[in-house]
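[retry 2/3] Phosphopantetheine adenylyltransferase: previous attempt timed out, resubmitting with same input.
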Amino acid sequence: MNAVFSGSFDPITNGHLDVLERASRIFDQVTVTVMHNARKSGRHLFDLQERLAILREATAHLPNVSVDSFDGLLVDYMKKSDHGIIVRGLRAVSDYEYELQIAHLNREIGGVETVFIMAATHWSYVSSSMVKEVASYGGPIDAMVPPASARALKAKFAEQGRQPAS
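[retry 2/3] Phosphopantetheine adenylyltransferase: success.
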């Protein structure tokens, strides 16, 4: 069975990667998808092509994982591809409440099931927004993100003159 792990991945964190690695052991094929939404242009630190490049590098060690993007509803993407399951990672109860609503909606409008994978305890505090905040001040991020994300964050903030690249 094939699955989709969808998110903004702005950028991918070690928590995302942990969920993805475990999903890759459960499913035959996992596609990491990044939603492209022109209405949300400018809301992400990295543009779509940058996020796809970071994801491809961060997941290169996983032979049954591919990277893709889509525009529109995830359930429509699922209908067009050979994927039967949505994978979502959960860090806390607050994630569950939000993700449960989306899972019900996806089942109702698209007939698609969702499988939740709990984040490993030591990654439960990590989020892309928190990592970006720490990185913007030159703080230590290497333990929270894969090397591809760390390099991209350091370069992006150096480019913006917000921190020296190290």
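[retry 2/3] Phosphopantetheine adenylyltransferase: The first strand starts at residue 2 and ends at 7.
[retry 2/3] clearing retry counter.
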